[in-house]
């Protein structure tokens, strides 16, 4: 039986994913995947949402469904928006914020530029984000300053804490951990600004992000 196209969703995976999934000897049986944000060590993949567990979508599946790469991505994004739209939001963790999507789709929301444009509205610097696991995405204003208990906190202090927390989560996630990079959301997409261990330079080039007001949160 052919899989039902409406059950296809995008999933962000670590690059090691392709080493752990055996696709046989034929390229058609290898999961469809392409890099996200340069050397972030992340892949955009697609999965068929089967009852038991998601099944990686392969070129063979695409051929069966009559989908090309563009149609596949458009379908997966429509499904992602439909599934997470009512739940999408941000939780204020004082020093930084956590993206909320539900169903383990937090990392997949990196593919929704309209969402991040909206979240970056009013930021004084670049929106900086970390994605240590599939259900954890933290972000902050690279130009932020905040008063806490009578003391002024700098963006460096907040970034230090965000990266330290993300590093712990990545370790706890073990084989399901994702990236140790600090990424910035820019008009050209996600760009690498540093890593959990070396993120001082992430604040060096921070500048207000060009925002298009009135964007739908999830497009």
SS-derived structural category: alpha+beta
Whole-angstrom Rg:
18 Å
Distance between the termini: 32 Å
The strand count comes to 12
What fraction strand? 25-35%
Query: Within the largest sheet, what's the order of strands?
Result: 5-6-8-7-11-12
SSE string, helix = H, strand = E? EHEEEHHEEHEEEEHEE
How is the biggest beta sheet arranged? 6 strands, antiparallel
What is the number of helical segments per DSSP (H or I, 4+ residues)? Answer: 5
- Fraction of residues in helices? 10-25%
User: Which consecutive residue ranges, at least 5 long each, have pLDDT under 50?
Assistant: 206-219
Principal-axes shape call: elongated
For the record, the count of structural domains works out to: 2
What does this structure look like?
The chain has 219 residues and is of the alpha+beta class. The chain folds into 2 domains: 5-84, no CATH class; 89-203, no CATH class. It contains 5 helices and 12 strands. The strands form 3 sheets. Strands 5-6-8-7-11-12 form a 6-stranded antiparallel sheet. The model is unreliable at 206-219 (pLDDT under 50).
